[in-house]
Amino acid sequence: MSAILLTSYYTIQNTATGGKRRVDELVRALQPDVFLLQPAPAHPGFAGAGYPSDFGRHKRGVNWGMFNLYWPPNRRVARRVAAAQAPKVLLATSIWCHDSFAGLGIPRALDAQNVDGRAIAERYGLNHPFTHLVRAQERRVVRQVECLFCCSETDAEIFRCDYGVPDAKIRVAPNGVRPPRTSVRDPAAERLAAERAGRCFLLFMGKLDYAPNEEALGFISKDFLPELERRMPGRFLCLVCGGPEMPAGVHHPALRYLGQVPDVTPWLELADVCLAPVF
Hints:
By secondary structure, the protein is an alpha/beta fold. It has 8 helices and 11 strands.
């Protein structure tokens, strides 16, 4: 039995999965007292189990994986695992992992990787039905959990203002950290460093079939890099790492796709600037 049952709607050993690093580090930090529940297969390196169906494999529109734990066979597995593990805390890594454990009488916490309601409203508009669905779900979940972890003080303030979450319930656990220098080496990064020739290296990394990342790469290739080239020709090279592949139609001479790199540390050390899809 484990003290904490941590639930994810995606497999965190998949390097092309959004949020993978935060959840992965969360599981590592909670060892040995955590049991990881995610779509099958179970994680090979952590104690855990897998539920059978993963709708996130369908790459159309929204990430359908968010509904994984509303599917009755998956929900039954989740509740059986909770009964077997008898945890002291249920820790959800998304607002969509919360409801399957309703009525069990176990304290619940949420690690919020972002403010979903704001993100969806920015994409679809405040009056879109999907925005209403997400905001209603998020409002209910953040009010029900005993503890809410979020990524920044900005997110914490949004949770307070949008949903009335009290300060006493909120804890900020930032994503942004300076990783210690390691002995990890990547020959590809070392070769590129030798070819720098005074250029500024930009780095974009993430799940490349995630709609905001696709949109960001389109902006980078069609607007951002052409403007940089107009002002300072040959000065910049934008490196892109992630998977499963580069989105269709994203091309520019100053854009180089690295694929899914084994470790991002050498590339973070190589980069002068990291780019994030925040508009």
